Amino acid sequence: MTPPSAWSPGAAPRPTADQAVAVSGRAALLRSLHRPGEPLLLPNVWDCRGARLVAQAGLPAVATSSAAIADSLGYADGEATPVGEMLDMVARIAAAVDVPVTADLERGYGMRPVELVERLAATGAAGCNLEDTDPRTGRLVDAARQADLLAEVREAAEACGVDLVVTARIDVYLDTAPGDPAGRLDETLRRARLYAAAGADCVFPILLSDEAGIARLVATGVAVNVLADSGRNLVRLAELGVARISLGPHLYRAGRAHLAGVIADLVRAQHPAALESSSPTGLAGVPAHTVAPPAAGT
Predict the structure, then answer these.
(1) What does the alpha-carbon distance between residue 121 and residue 91 come to, in Å, rounded to a whole number?
(2) Which residues sit opposite 140 in a β-bridge?
């Protein structure tokens, strides 16, 4: 097992018995919030203040965004963040709120399933997302291999005496290789069934936006998470039977773009003549108060 870092509460080697009981209770609550047709709304956060804002708004659970946390810490998305730093932030967020927290763990940061379960539970988080893209290659992992990973995580949780809500992200629509839409949907459905059979509580077909495809996935009987964007009708997603709606790094990127716009406004105020002759998009090519669209990362 990877040695725990002395400074990171998120890197503790395993949960105590009391922690295991608390985590299991929060996991049971989180699982109960996945109700098809009454979706759990998860505006993904990257720090304690964001988590508190979500809880203060009355939302019953908090989700993290690995892409947002990575960028805020100065790392690229795709498991470039040291696992101790990622888990440390998850632990801080979980300690900041009284509602269940589910953590985006990409593909597990190279941890063995038992290590992943122990260290995640030690943060106080009640669930996690695990995706089926290999961060080393950027390509889809074989579906059976990913199902084995999910089954091993579920078995490790049972062996450790903790309950965790596991969401299996399906990245078929992220694959840049050419493919017909029907074939992609069929592969998404196949993976959803495999992952649910392996112990996943929820599937997350990232970038699947076709209503008919979403409806077919819901019809498999597994809880479905859909990535929302600013133009997506949340009421319509509920009508389709979605059980969970997340925003990925959308809020983080929107806030970052807004901050860039505010900074550009300040620079304009100090040096109006210089900026009038520069690019019309302003500082570093960023228009003032631009809201970035949601992207694929979570």
Answers:
(1) 9
(2) 133
**Both tokens of residue 62?**
């908090």
Q: What is the pLDDT of residues 15-41, one digit of tens each?
A: 677 888 999 999 999 999 999 999 999
Run of H or E including 103: strand 101-104
């988080």: which residue's tokens?
Answer: 125
Paired strand residues for 234: none
Q: Give the Cα separation of 236 and 252 in Å (integer).
A: 24
Strand arrangement of the beta sheet that strand 40-42 belongs to: 40-42, 244-246, 223-227, 202-205, 165-170, 127-131, 101-104, 62-63
Look at the alpha carbons of 218, 220, 224, 227 in this order and tell me if their dihedral is positive or negative: negative
Structure token pair of residue 26:
């929060």
| Band of residue 9 on the pLDDT scale cut at 50, 70, 90 | low
Rounded to the nearest 5°, which phi and psi values hold at 60? -90, 0
- Between CA 98 and CA 109, with CA 104 as vertex, the angle to 5 degrees is 125
Average pLDDT, the chain: 88
Backbone angles phi, psi at 187, to 5 degrees: -70, -35
Q: Angle at which helices 143-160 and 181-197 pack, to 10 degrees?
A: 30
Nearest to 157 by CA among 195, 198, 118, 203: 118
Element of type H or E holding 202: strand 202-205
Q: Distance between CA 192 and CA 197 in Å, rounded?
A: 9
pTM beyond 0.85, yes or no: yes
Residue 73 CA to residue 58 CA, distance in Å, equals 28
Q: Which tokens belong to 207? A: 């970038």
For 21-37, letters b (16+ CB in 10 Å) and e give ebbbebbeebbebbebe
> Is the per-residue pLDDT at 272 higher than 90?
no
What is residue 286's predicted lDDT score, i.e. its pLDDT?
Answer: 40
Residues in the chain: 298
Token pair recorded at residue 46? 């990257």
